[in-house]
Specification:
The structure holds 2 protein chains of 2 kinds.
Chain A lengths: L3 E5 L7 H9 L3 E5 L11 E3 L5 H6 L5 H10 L3 E4 L1 H4 L4 E2 L12 E5 L7 E5 L2 E2 L12 E5 L1 E5 L4 E6 L3 E8 L2 E4 L7 H18 L1
Parallel strand pairs in A: 1-2, 1-3, 3-4, 4-13, 5-6
Antiparallel strand pairs in A: 6-10, 7-9, 8-11, 11-12, 12-13
Chain B lengths: L5 E9 L2 E3 L9 E3 L1 H11 L4 E5 L4 H15 L6 E4 L5 H10 L3 E4 L1 H5 L2 H10 L4 E10 L2 E6 L4 E6 H11 L3 E6 L11 H10 L4 E4 L5 H10 L4 E4 L1 H4 L5 H10 L6
Parallel strand pairs in B: 1-4, 1-12, 4-5, 5-6, 6-7, 7-10, 10-11, 11-12
Antiparallel strand pairs in B: 1-2, 2-3, 7-8, 8-9
Helix pairs in contact in B: 1-2, 2-3, 8-10
Classes of the chains: A alpha/beta, B alpha/beta.
Chain lengths: ~200, ~250
């Protein structure tokens, strides 16, 4: 049986690329509008579209239940804003995030904002095993500021910024693997295998 | 290691086919957009731009189908522009699979569109395209596919779109466009130094050397080109090896 991924649809932006990319890696993808279904999912993907508050809107009623599942070890991948909402809050929004990761999301400080384009990720984590060309696509104006040591990968953009998080079986990426061509596909392939082993 | 410079093939799309205009004229069919986009990704393109130059609503609907088809095959970012008049046009393009949407004429006519779209969809997906021509010691902005003088100074306009929340500027020199004599370096430099958002240089590319010149001679983050790639003179890979040999960091 292929890995069943519940892909959260917050009601903003398109999920074509991430869906197709996960399917190419052998997963079966269900796009989920009813966020209560995430509680029963064998693997959760929080995609990277939209702004902080809008993204949290549908998730808000199920916050505690989702966090409990993540703490229990359900494999999860949060991409860009989908990673940022794993934290407690953001300077981009008013409302709280999921609060699974400790720390907040802060405005990026650099002479050029957004940080837009292809950059490298410095990490020793197994999730990057076999990734040939270590360049990933970024497009963001805010960044994570973890307080729990969950940042296991960093990127140089006018100073080192946290761009890969991990806690329990949850990964969070500031970059968009689904927009990162062959490197992104290798990363997603590793994630799907990682999730299969832990479902 | 740090952020690399981007090379962006641009596909001018009319009624579902890729065409390349020379100074906005003389259109000639050269290919099917989703296939070309995929081929460019394989060559190492960092991003793809679709510019819809259909005049009709029908042509625009065709484009959305093509965007959707492309998004299922393409795993690098896709920017869609041309004919964006309302926030709903932008929403439709994003829902079809565009990662960013570029607006030009509407931004000049109703600058508040920029801030509204940035608020709803995020700055990172709002690109403002600026077409400009040399006049006196500066540059002036044109709209309507280069047909109408907007009577605005380019640098002032670039600063304003940044203030309104644009995430990127796609800057085309109308003097250079189609000449294959190289980008307008001075013009690109003027905008890239005036703003703090990324700038894509466009118009005039005829060789890898031109791309090197604009990326080395200005603060532009990216260079856009069409015909040098469409006619198979150079692949994106050729251009990138050349840039790398000359000390420009690329993916």
């Amino acid at each position: 049986m292929p890995l069943k991924v519940a892909l959260a649809d917050y009601g903003v932006g398109n999920l074509h690329s991430i869906r197709k990319a996960l399917e190419n890696c052998g997963a079966s993808v269900e796009v989920v509008e009813d966020m209560s279904l995430l509680q029963e999912a064998e693997c959760i993907v929080l995609p990277g579209v939209g702004a902080f508050d809008r993204t949290m809107e549908r998730l808000q009623p199920f916050r505690e239940a989702i966090v409990q599942r993540l703490n229990e070890g359900v494999p999860c991948l949060g991409i860009c804003i989908g990673m940022q909402i794993l934290f407690q809050g953001s300077e981009e929004g008013q409302g709280p995030g999921l609060g699974f990761l400790h720390g907040n999301v802060v405005r990026l400080k650099a002479p050029r904002i957004p940080h837009m384009g292809w950059n490298t990720v410095d990490t020793d984590d197994v999730i990057m095993n076999g990734v040939q060309d270590n360049h990933f696509y970024f497009a963001h104006s805010f960044r994570a500021s973890p307080e729990d040591g969950s940042d296991i990968g960093h990127t140089d953009y006018y100073g080192m910024i946290p761009t890969l998080m991990r806690k329990a079986n949850t990964y969070g990426t500031q970059f968009h693997p689904e927009k990162s061509s062959t490197a992104g596909m290798a990363f997603l392939n590793n994630f799907v295998h990682f999730a299969e082993d832990r479902k | 290691m740090s952020l690399t410079k981007r090379i962006i093939p641009c596909l001018d799309v009319k009624n579902g086919a890729v065409v390349k205009g020379i100074k906005f004229l003389d259109l000639k069919d050269v290919g099917y957009p989703p296939e070309m986009a995929e081929a460019y990704e394989k060559q190492g393109a960092d991003e793809i731009v679709f510019l819809d130059i259909s005049a009709s609503a029908e042509g625009r609907r065709t484009l959305l189908d093509i965007v959707e088809e492309t998004a299922k095959r393409l795993f690098v970012p896709l920017t869609v522009g041309g004919g964006i008049r309302e926030k709903d046009d932008m929403r439709a393009a994003l829902n079809a699979g565009a990662d960013k949407v570029s607006m030009n004429t509407v931004a000049v006519l109703r600058p508040e569109m920029i801030s509204e779209c940035a608020k709803d969809f995020g700055s990172q997906c709002v690109v403002v395209a600026i077409d400009a021509k040399r006049r006196g010691g500066g540059w002036t902005v044109y709209t309507h596919g280069g047909r109408q003088d907007a009577r605005m100074d380019m640098v002032e306009w670039a600063r304003k779109v940044e203030d309104l929340g644009a995430g990127e500027i796609l800057l085309t020199s109308m003097d250079a466009d189609g000449t294959k004599d190289g980008y307008d370096i001075e013009m690109t430099r003027a905008v890239a130094e005036a703003v703090n958002i990324p700038v894509i240089a466009s118009g005039g590319c005829g060789s890898p050397k031109h791309i090197l010149d604009v990326l080395r001679g200005t603060k532009a983050e990216a260079a856009l080109a069409a015909s040098i790639f469409h006619y198979g003179q150079w692949t994106v890979r050729d251009v990138k090896s050349y840039l790398r040999e000359n000390g420009v960091e690329v993916r």
